[in-house]
Amino acid sequence: MVVVADIYMRFLLVSLVLGFVCSAAHAALVVTPVSGSTLQVPSYFTGNGNGFAMGAFEITSSNGKGHVLESITLKATSGGAPVNGDDSTAFSEIGLFLDVNSNGLYDPSVDTRYGFPYTAYPADDASLTFAARLGIPSVNPQRFLIVAKLNGVVPPYLNAAFHTVVENVVGTGGPVVGVPTSVIPGVSPVNGSTSLRLEYSITGSAPSYDYAFRLVLDNHDGSWAAGQQWDGPIFGQATFENPGSTPFANWATNATSYPIGTFDATYWSGVGVAGSVYYAPVLIGPGFANYWEPTSVGDELTWWGTTDVFLIDGEMAWTAWRYGLGPTALGSSTLEPAHRVGDYLRVNPIAGSFVDVAPAATGTGSGFVIGVFDVISHTNSATLSSLTLAASGSGDDSTAFSDVRLFVDTNSNGAYDPGVDTQFGQTYSAYPADDGSLTFTDTLNFNPDETKRLLVVVKLNGSTLASYGQTFDTAVTAISATGNMHSGLPTATMPGIHIEAPTLTLSTSAGVTNVAADAQGPADIGVQAAEFLLANNAVGAASLDSITIAAAGSLFDHTGFSSVALFEDTNSNGAYDAADTLYAAATSAFPTDDGSLTFSQSISFAPGQSRLFLLVLKLSGSGQVGDDFWARVTVLGVSGGTETANVPGTLVECLNIDTAGTTPPPSTGSSNNDSGCSTGTHESFWLLALALACIPALRRRARA
Prior knowledge:
about 700 residues; mainly beta; 41 strands; flat
């Protein structure tokens, strides 16, 4: 009986130790908030309609194995701030995105959404759950961005706090560590700029001067939303200094200094801003309402006045507040410069994007547009006599072009139409130097309040062809015309040409296939696990040198396969068969669990060509029922100026072992550096525990 008791106690002790080791090794997902500061934005901010990141956190597989994330629950909180924002009314959208390019920023065209978005939280300080199956590889932490839009049903008050806690995470493979997290810094609404622009003109050569004011909705900050009502522009005198200096340092606070006319208590009211009192006229909108509600970009409101003060451009500061909300409350704005206009011209660049072209592009011989801008007159007629363009960008403007010209968009369609549009000034073969300037002289007459659109038209194919990746941009730096103080100069840089490099764009697809632990595929040719499509959509030939594939999942990838190969789908039928070509030499397995394999071979992609690659596997029989295998392309090796897109690719689930194999597993079992305890190995641990416990007792019996 003593021997039996001794055996039992040793068996129990070793079993408990081994059970503890297994449990610790199964810790699966670790959640870590990303440090940052509270973002301050206008109370109606929507990130130009795309949303903005108001916090981030990372999820990591802690035990060196990939796992599957199933859901994330966020809880709204004020974080202890004095003003608690109402999360059920302030937002118009709350969502989660994966930081695909790992730059720590929200990129709407790159980052991918996790789960479905919500319009708001169900209640203040409530919770939202986002659900989707996502593989978390062991290679790198996965960063999630909390992306929101304000402009909800009730705009939030200034300085209200909106923060987030990751309340819970659900995933396969073991417990989750780090939830609930500490408070993740979020967003707080502050005074922003307005979506309005204030222009004024001055006439007269001596006091008193006549002023005309034009308040226009131009949405220059992207913050306008239908229904905004504005009241009470506030004026002051200030000289706007160099960027970075403190504006509005010297305000004139008496009403007679304002170029609006004599103070009239009927239409003016004193308001407090930053400890000083300023006077503001009431805006009179349609139907004599004491507010103005613009309905579309371009809407304007005008009024007039006289004063002895002559203000040049940039000397008058102004702001406005949202009707019914007051100058320092919800929706009020920071101070902005008023812009002087009049019997002279304003130049306004039209937003655009790069034109992707080949180094010798000539626009079918007629040229193509690389910049568009408007020249606008105001209250009087004007005549434009010259215009100067400055070049910029990484390409050499003195050698890349064979033709540079200016055209007036005669038919106002925004496009260059040879034989229809009218040339303005000279024809140049190139710029005199890299990043140099060209001046075009001609005569162009403007009626009052007239806009003429001009087009910068070029041909490449110069004395030295441009290289892949180079850019060529333009800005208007000067004009000569009747009047003076022409505004809008120099203009913002207009994106022009991008010499398009050949680019291999990756897309990944896979469906989970149930297989046996020793599956060899039909006719022993292997199991098709995933498909990787590479497409060259550029104007030049692309060069591929290698493809690196990383493994993830619970299957031991260094012992679970007898063959790993990458084939090109030669016959383009989407399935692996005997007609397909081995891309590169196959290997027996991945070098380590959750490791990577690089397949090397140099091949060329013609412009517009696509190639489909198939990951083909044969299993060794060592896998356990319930094991799964995931894969992703992590690196594309390219050369010859070739670029890549969407790399690293999507992590996809490929195989699920649902049947034990007939082939006995290798004697090494789950060897090497794996710290996890997968299903099927626990029986071995129990037997090992029993053996260790029995050895001393058996030795005593032998001696007896």
